[in-house]
């Protein structure tokens, strides 16, 4: 079953701790993305990667970090520097061609207390 | 700057009524427009894109470059259409132009 897998579904952390969200895809897509979804805010781009070993900051990258060591994997680390980390995080991937749509994972809900 | 505006946070209609979810965009080049839908407890998924000019689940959307709009329409709403709808814009593939810019979303509620 091809697709994007995000884990875990729910994540709880104490303030001041870093936490890493997993995103794996077996669609052979080159590009991968991390979005944050907040009520009334829509989806905001955190980081994206169009090729292995390369990634770019999105609109709200502060307090986040990523890596892209493998084509299939694009983990997101929410650091203690992120001032408002509690949110729903969505990972997506896309084919390397024009007009290609994004394919999304099921998301990870992170709660930091 | 690229921007997508969905003016309605919530749209409530009765079953069988026509529905129109508004989307306006700001982009200087030739945009690619998409509508994504998120049903309760399901992942965000593509509903349709302007380049395909197709009807999906009875929904259509026409790109109006003069009005910079890409409104989503359905003549007869069904209860199963209740979901969160996002309009998105892309400047194509490649570099930051390929990234999708999303509107803030409209929650559609179809009442029986």
Describe the structure.
The complex is a heterodimer of chains A (113) and B (112). Chain A is an all-beta fold and 113 residues long. Helix content of chain A is 0%, strand content 51%. Chain A has no helices and eleven strands. In chain A, the strands form two sheets. In chain A, strands 2, 4, 5, 6, 9, 10 and 11 form a seven-stranded mixed β-sheet that branches. A four-stranded antiparallel β-sheet of chain A has the order 1-3-8-7, with no helix packed on it. In chain A, a hairpin with an 8-residue loop joins strand 9 and strand 10 (103-104). The mean pLDDT of chain A is 92. Chain B has strands spanning 3-5, 10-14, 19-21, 24-26, 32-38, 45-49, 60-61, 72-74, 83-90, 101-102, 106-111. With 112 residues, chain B is mainly β. Chain A binds chain B through residues 31, 33, 35, 40-45, 48, 50, 56, 58, 90, 94, 96-107, and chain B through 6, 9, 32, 34, 36, 43-46, 49, 51, 86, 88, 92-96, 98-100, 102-105.
What pattern of helices and strands is seen along the backbone of chain A? EEEEEEEEEEE
Q: Radius of gyration of chain B from the CA trace?
A: 14 Å
Q: Uncertain runs of chain A with pLDDT below 50, 5 residues or more? A: none
Largest interface: A-B, 27 and 25 residues
**What is the 3D form of chain A?**
globular
Task: List SSEs of chain B in N-to-C order.
Answer: EEEEEEEEEEE
Counting copies of identical and different chains, the oligomeric state is heterodimer
Query: N- to C-terminal separation of chain B?
Result: 41 Å
Structure annotation, total helices of chain A: 0
Number of strands of chain A: 11
Which regions of chain B are unreliable across 5 or more consecutive residues at pLDDT < 50? none
- Whole-Å distance between the termini of chain A? 35 Å
């Amino acid at each position: 079953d091809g697709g994007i897998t995000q884990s875990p579904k729910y994540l709880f952390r104490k303030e001041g701790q870093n936490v890493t969200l997993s995103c794996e895809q077996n669609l052979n897509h080159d590009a991968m993305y991390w979005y944050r979804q907040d009520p009334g805010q829509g989806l905001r781009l955190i980081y994206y990667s169009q090729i292995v070993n390369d990634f770019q900051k999105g609109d709200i990258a502060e307090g986040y970090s990523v890596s892209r060591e493998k084509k299939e994997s694009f983990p997101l680390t929410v650091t203690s520097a992120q001032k408002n980390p509690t949110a729903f995080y969505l990972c997506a991937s896309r084919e390397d061609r024009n007009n290609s749509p994004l394919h999304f994972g099921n998301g990870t809900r992170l709660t930091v207390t | 700057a690229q921007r997508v505006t969905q003016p309605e946070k919530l749209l409530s209609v009765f079953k069988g009524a026509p529905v129109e979810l508004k989307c306006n965009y700001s982009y200087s080049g030739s945009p690619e427009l998409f509508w994504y839908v998120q049903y309760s407890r399901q992942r965000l998924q593509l509903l349709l894109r302007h380049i395909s000019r197709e009807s999906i689940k009875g929904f259509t959307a026409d790109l109006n470059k003069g009005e910079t709009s890409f409104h989503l329409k359905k003549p007869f709403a069904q209860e199963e259409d209740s979901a969160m709808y996002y309009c998105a814009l892309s400047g194509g593939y490649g570099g930051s132009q390929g990234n999708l810019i999303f509107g803030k979303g409209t929650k559609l509620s179809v009442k029986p």
